[in-house]
Amino acid sequence: MPRPIQAFVHTDALRHNVRRLRAFAPDARMWAVVKANAYGHGIERVFEGFRGCDGFALLDLDEAQRVRALGWRGPVWLLEGIFDPRDLELCSRLDLWHTVHCDEQLDMLSRHKTQVPHRVFLKMNSGMNRLGFKPQSFRAAWSRLNQLPQVDEISFVTHFSDADGPQGVAEQMAVFTDATHDLPGERSTSNSAALLRHARAPDVAADWVRPGIALYGSAPDFPQHNIAHWQLQPTLSLRSQLIGMQELQAGDSVGYGSSFQADAPLRMGVVACGYADGYPRHCPTGTPVLVDGVRTRTLGRVSMDMIAVDLTPCPQAGFGSEVTLWGRASKGAVLPIDEVAQAAGTVGYELMCAVSARVAFTQD
Q1: Over the stretch 227-245, which tens digit does the pLDDT of each residue have?
Q2: pLDDT by residue (tens digit) across 71-109?
Q3: What are phi and psi of 46, to 5 degrees?
Q4: For residues 246 and 300, is the Cβ–Cβ distance under 8 A?
Q5: Positive/negative CA dihedral, 37, 43, 45, 47
Q6: Is 230 helix (H, G, I), strand (E, B) or coil?
Q7: How many Cα atoms are found within 13 Å in the side-chain-facing hemisphere of 231?
Q8: CATH class of the 11-218 domain in this structure
Q9: Are 53 and 62 within 8 A, CB to CB?
Q10: Which of 54, 82, 215, 249 is most buried, by CB atoms within 10 Å?
Q11: What count of Cα atoms within 13 Å lies in the side-chain half-sphere of residue 9?
């Protein structure tokens, strides 16, 4: 039989999170952000759960073709726009909306020959300082776009750098509003953190919201708030089984480098999961894990194919017992991915995207 580790994508949780996030901006339309292969879940596996959204936002043409191949006829948005003039042909053929964030993209669009004008989002750099036109050059970019026969409708977008923290979005929102207030077109502003924390403020209201990580059951402002606070559900569960046990005596060590040493007799289990499966190598002793739905901890270093866990809280556990590395156990207990990510010194986004190809995915 195959190795027992599996990843489960929960369609019911995807639908729940869509409904929950809509409640924060009920008058706005919602993009489902499915970049990075739907944050590691697989675009095809999340599609049914996200059909209740108004559009799909992603990064590259391959992802766009996959969404269209699933039968989606609504809006599809290339968040970073085009990378090559030839990309515009596929934008025309697939009816893709795309971002314009620099003069080079404007130049490519001005030379493009098309019978069908494009829908574009003109991006402002309101303070994130990654992509977009700065406020002082934004109106000139809009004027140039507005004169192109290749362009139909122009919408506006910016991205917040501190929506998850104390600085908030007010300063960037003021810059964006000041530069666009008299320009016709729809606006998209709120990512997950802005949607949950700020979207109900009147000056942050927009035509489109574009949640990403929150759709997948991770809190964008963890540890200040967890998914229970936001009433979100985990959409990806990584589960395996115990494949061995050891009885440790005081002084016995576990794993490479003997980084954990028992200070008393202890029953230990070995889990079929390691960093080659995408579990973070840097998770230290004490990282939370569920065994048969009971919360316990890891012991020692994570190796390529195995993790050691403390079986003290679950004395009945044995060979074949279920181990939930993150997400929802089959009996319903939940271990938020954010807690595991925090132990590894990273974020839930990275863990979702890092599940390796050798892990089998199941949709439930």
Answers
A1: 999 999 999 999 999 999 9
A2: 999 999 999 999 999 999 999 999 999 999 999 999 999
A3: -95, -10
A4: no
A5: positive
A6: helix
A7: 10
A8: alpha beta
A9: no
A10: 215
A11: 26
pLDDT given for residue 230 in this prediction: 98
Chain center to CA of 320? 31
For residue 275, the SS3 value is helix
Q: 29-33 and 208-209: which strand pairing?
A: parallel
| pLDDT beyond 80 at 1 | no
pLDDT average, residue stretch 117-145? 97
DSSP string over 10-54 = -HHHHHHHHHHHHTTSTTSEEEEE-HHHHHTT-HHHHHHHHTTSS
Q: Which of 63-77, 88-102, 188-202 has the lowest mean pLDDT?
A: 188-202
What is the largest distance, in Å, between two alpha-carbon atoms of the chain? 77
Catalytic residues: 35, 256
How high is the pLDDT of residue 115?
83
Is the confidence at residue 150, as pLDDT, over 90? yes
Tokens standing for residue 209: 């919201």
Residues in the chain: 364
| Residue 119, Ramachandran bin (φ over 0: left; ψ between -120 and 50: alpha; else beta) | beta
Going from N- to C-terminal start, the domains of the chain cover 11-218, 236-363
Q: Which two tokens stand for residue 11?
A: 């369609």
For domain 236-363, the CATH superfamily is Lyase, Ornithine Decarboxylase; Chain A, domain 1 (2.40.37.10)
pLDDT above 90: residue 207: yes
User: For residues 310, 312, 318 and 323, what is the CA-based torsion angle, rounded to 10 degrees?
Assistant: -50
